[in-house]
Amino acid sequence: MQIDLILIKEYCQKTNLEPSFFIMLEESGLIDIYIVEGEKQFPTSQLADLERFARMYYDLHINMEGIDAIHHILNRMKRLQDELNHLRSKLRLYE
Predict the structure, then answer these.
(1) Would you state the torsion angle of the CA atoms of residues 75, 61, 44, 35, taken in this order, to the nearest 10 degrees?
(2) What is the pLDDT of residue 2?
(3) 55 with 66: CB under 8 angstroms?
(4) pLDDT digit string, tens, across residues 28-78
(5) Three-state SS annotation for the chain
(6) Could you give the CA distance from residue 83 to residue 76 in angstroms, rounded to a whole number?
(7) Is the separation of the CB atoms in 67 and 56 below 8 Å?
(8) pLDDT value at position 16?
(9) What's the CA gap between 73 and 35, in Å, rounded?
């Protein structure tokens, strides 16, 4: 299975993000970084998360620990919402 990747160097040039920001995200376990042919890259599937993290960090001045906590809370809320929707659909079968 092939993963579509974006070069961090090129992404940083286009968005004015610092490459060290990616390292901090990887160290926090928030994104995955792959090294292909000596170039650091990240999966396109994580682009939406990356943009959200960048807004939190640069615009809202939230530190990595805060971003990590917010990320976990949002994921938990999504799982709970999915579970609620599933249970509602099961309940409709019995009505």
Answers:
(1) -110
(2) 76
(3) no
(4) 999 999 999 999 999 999 999 999 999 999 999 999 999 999 999 999 999
(5) CCCCEEEHHHHHHHHCCCHHHHHHHHHCCCCCCEEECCEEEEEHHHHHHHHHHHHHHHHCCCCHHHHHHHHHHHHHHHHHHHHHHHHHHHHHHHC
(6) 11
(7) yes
(8) 93
(9) 30
Could you identify the residue written with the tokens 């376990």? 29
Q: How confident is the model at residue 1 (pLDDT cuts 50, 70, 90)?
A: low
Report d(CA 67, CA 25) in Å as an integer. 9
User: Which residue shows structure tokens 């090294």?
Assistant: 35
- CA separation, residue 80 to residues 34, 64, 85, 91 (Å): 31, 24, 9, 16
Structure tokens at 74: 């949002």
